[in-house]
Amino acid sequence: MQFNKSKSTKRFNFNISRDTVSHKAGSNTVSITTNAPDDTYYTSRSQITMTVKEARAFQSFLNSYIDGKSGTPTID
User: Fold this and answer.
1) SS3 for 51?
2) d(CA 53, CA 46)
């Protein structure tokens, strides 16, 4: 079963694409793409794509440190 969700902010586009049936490499990804600022002619974009497992590790890191605490995160 295909699952695709997107969220956009002024500076970023966030996308998740999952295939709950497929076990093929690259079928479950999370991507973050930058948007060019509205007030500039500069149109270069950057994108990072990671697996859902890598995204979960990133999420754990952010959840552990985003509030400024210095605990040790647990990454599976």
Assistant:
1) strand
2) 21
Total domains in the fold of the chain? 1
Q: Token match 């990454």: residue?
A: 75
Name the percent of the chain lying above pLDDT 70.
83
Summarize pLDDT for 42-75 with one digit per residue, the tens. Answer: 667 899 999 989 999 999 999 998 877 665 555 5
Q: Give the pLDDT score at 45.
A: 82
Q: Which domain holds residue 59?
A: 2-65
In a domain, 74, yes or no: no
**45 found inside a domain:** yes
Given a contact cutoff of 8 angstroms between Cβ atoms, the answer to whether 5 and 13 are in contact is no
